[in-house]
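Long-time lurker, finally posting.

We've been working with Phosphate transporter (Thioclava sediminum) and I want a structural starting point before designing mutants. I don't trust myself to interpret raw outputs, so I'm hoping someone here can both generate the structure tokens and explain anything notable. Sequence follows.
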Amino acid sequence: MANQDNESRVNQWKTLDKDLKRIGRVESAGQFVARGMVAPGIALAFIVLVGLVAAVLVGGQPGQLVVIAAAAIGAYMALNIGANDVANNMGPAVGSRAMTLIGALIVAAIFESLGALVAGGDVVKTVAKGIIEPTALPDSGHFVWAMMAALLAAALWLNLATWLGAPVSTTHSIVGGVVGAGIVAAGFGAVDWVSMAKIAASWVISPVMGGVIAAAFLALIKTKVIYVDDKIAAARRWVPILIGIMSGAFAAYLALKGLKHLFKITIVEAVLIGLVVGVIGWLVTIPMIRRQSEGMENRKKSLKTLFGLPLVVSAALLSFAHGANDVANAVGPLAAIVHTVEQGDIAAEVGIPFWVMAVGALGISVGLLLFGPKLIRLVGNEITKLNPMRAYCVALSAAITVIVASWLGLPVSSTHIAVGGIFGVGFYREWHAEKRARELGIRKGKPVPPEERKRRLLVRRSHMMTVATAWIVTVPASAALSAVVYLILNAIT
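Top reply, 14 upvotes:
Generated this for you. Predicted structure of Phosphate transporter:
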């Protein structure tokens, strides 16, 4: 009997252990599922909070429900900008391991917010840089629905692009949204098709220009620094020059793009500011690089250290300029809605209330922290392998391309420039590696077979096709979404 009782207790404990293991597995599964819901939950809470704040600020005013809804959609848009657009500034720095992912998220959140709040536009054109004529719309009510449809459509498209892993242009998304709503509301004649043609041209101009400039700087570094006998001596001579070029380029870039809202500045004045700052940066960094390079081994790995800090600074400056320039474009439709509801008229230009800029700035930071890592990893790691020198060329290319494009009067996208720069660096590496392999094969009498050369490709073609398709589809996709949303809003009201 005693043995039977003991066996019964053992079986009971075994059954209990099995049940506890099942419960443990269920809890683990629940935690795994819940983890994926944390970020969307926080994002939803942010959108609701913005709606509540808007309700407090506009409470009792006519059309308050429209403003509250627009504020919530604007918050959703800002979250998606943070998730998608900011990756282009921080991806190269993270991919090259000059910054950790956490460090990049913190730096980007701080400088994006500073750019938006300190140097963000006080006045923006309400209809995405003259894409449609406001007076072509029947009345102010239709204008409000058109802007709301454009904002929501752009946000939805950015959300989808982020989920697909494709970095796309925020400005192009907004433009597409405005075009779609404008066509449905007022017909094809309301759209400025000349401006649209320029934007379409920028799909090619931006990435090609960014890629060529980034590849040219990488070729310079390889020729003058990497493939020389005394690498440290070459670095002491050329790294201060490159930092001077970076300092000058970013000074002109910030003056032209980030600070233009504080005071008027011409392209010539911006270039002169860049020249002065560039010379100062070159002179200041000569002794710094000399001290930093003392005792370094004469090899390529040592050179990467010298580019680390300048790359971090360039990423921060890119984020500041992006916050100052692109956030205003993104919240422009929201500002237009608020102005039209409060004043009852359609203005060609409107002031952006501080709370609207704050929605844009905070939303970008929250979206970046919650959803940014996915695209930061893609831009930094999955297109081509980056090190600090290659990433530095990409950042430098972004600043110089914007200046050159502004001088030529060409509309360009910072997203397309940065990603184009990464592709440019990758394709140059392929060409250079092929050239060296061919020369080595000729010397040894053993040419590299075609299948081996194909295996050595350094740019992932699948990502190139995904990104290119997303760029081409952005304007028509956001336009189609906006048209549908506008028709729904119009039908409801």
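Before you design anything, note these points.
Residues 41-492 form one domain.
The chain has a mean pLDDT of 81.
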